[in-house]
Amino acid sequence: MTVASYPTLGMGTAPIGNLYRVVEDGEAQATLNAAWDAGIRYYDTAPHYGFGWAERRLGMMLAARDPDGTAIVSTKVGRLLVPTDARGERHGFVDADPYAPVFDYRYDAVLRSFEGSRARLGRDRIDLLLAHDIGRLTHGDDHGRHLRAFLDSGYRAMHDLRDAGAIGAIGIGVNEVAICDELLDHVELDMILLAGRYTLLDRSAERLLARCADLGVRIIVGGPYNSGILARDLSGPLHFDYAAPSEAILGKAQRLAQTCAEFEVPLPAAALQFPLRHPAVVSVIPGLVGPDQVADTMTRLSVRLPDPLWPALDASLKDSSMLQDDARLILLHPDDNVLICVRPIEAGDILPASGGTIPAREGIAIGHKVARNALHAGDKVIKYGAPIGSMTADVATGDWVHMHNMKSDYISSHTRTALEPGA
């Protein structure tokens, strides 16, 4: 199965892993069978979802409905399931299997996790394997340790599985933009599953998607409803990113809803279809539980939305105070000696650097690095508090740091080329 042939609609299986509430086996199987009957042929899962429940339930349906293995399945690595005596709700999953998820991105752990998933799913081959929830947002101060484990060996395990034909493609499954950029600096990925960061409400992944389009990395968008706030009308209890929305977020959602009402289209339909407009996006995968949610999803996907709706929705956001401020550069870690460009910089623009301001010497594109202070040949380039490469030439404060004046220490040892047998 090639990346280009992924269906535009898939199903996320976290809800049938008892996310936030008990889902009986009958309801889980009814959901999966309704999805299959509706023509859904891509299913995303993970060991973390119910600590095995979601994979096992999906495997049961596929064994009955898809004995020839025609459906596309993605699952994840990065957590090992360790037996536990703990009961009750854990990590948001209710009455899940008696296992505790333990983060481990090392080579052997990736292989063990993959074999466990393969057994629960009842499939010899997995179409897409994703490193799950790697990144500073999840790991905080442990981010550097987990990233090193992944780059030093976990990525190689995924690469080896792909070379052996056990999986079709490799990538990451995350809900933060920064780690996507960080890993793309170091290794090659086939796909990224990004949840909640490219939606009607949250456009923070726009520059990342542009980068991925240039690199040929395909995007699967999870969480198109941002935890439910875009999934229905805006009455009653609402959630945005798994928590109650702020007044600012609620106001933004209300403006989007009003614009949709003016065009006489449902807000959830616009939310579901919005990510698919980007050329880097191949699939959108809402989490589903219950045949009614499957039916609603198919209806939303089929709604014809007028072309003028999209610029009108964009305009409603531009009128919002929720727009990003005028900052051009961000500092990702206090120890970094580079800043990251988050808005295009033109030659002559005034930039903050080292406690003062300087004029930019050249235009700099979004996502690129700018020297926070003068750097010299041989100096380490520090991003996220860790070295990512070495300077090969001197640069002044505010200069563009790119592949012509630096080398990536990780790229030289972790790219596909370097990982070829015998390399």
Topology at a glance:
Blueprint: E1 11-12, H1 25-37, E2 42-44, H2 53-65, E3 72-77, E4 79-83, E5 99-103, H3 107-121, E6 126-132, H4 136-139, H5 143-163, E7 167-174, H6 177-186, E8 191-195, H7 206-215, E9 218-222, H8 247-262, H9 267-273, E10 281-285, H10 291-302, H11 309-318, E11 329-330, E12 338-341, E13 350-353, E14 356-359, E15 369-371, E16 380-383, E17 386-391, E18 400-401, E19 406-407, H12 409-414, H13 416-419
Parallel strand pairs: 1-2, 2-3, 3-6, 6-7, 7-8, 8-9, 9-10
Antiparallel strand pairs: 4-5, 11-12, 12-15, 13-14, 15-18, 16-17, 17-19
Helix pairs in contact: 1-2, 1-10, 3-5, 8-11, 9-10
Description:
- This protein has 423 residues and is of the alpha/beta class.
- The chain contains 13 helices and 19 strands.
- The protein has an 8-stranded parallel β-sheet with strand order 1-2-3-6-7-8-9-10. A 4-stranded antiparallel β-sheet has the order 11-12-15-18, with no helix packed on it. A 3-stranded antiparallel β-sheet has the order 16-17-19.
- Strand 1 (11-12), helix 1 and strand 2 (42-44) form a beta-alpha-beta unit.
- Helix 3 (107-121) crosses helix 5 and helix 9 packs across helix 10 (291-302).
- The longest helix has 21 residues, at 143-163.
- The radius of gyration is 22 Å and the shape is globular.
- The two termini are 27 Å apart.
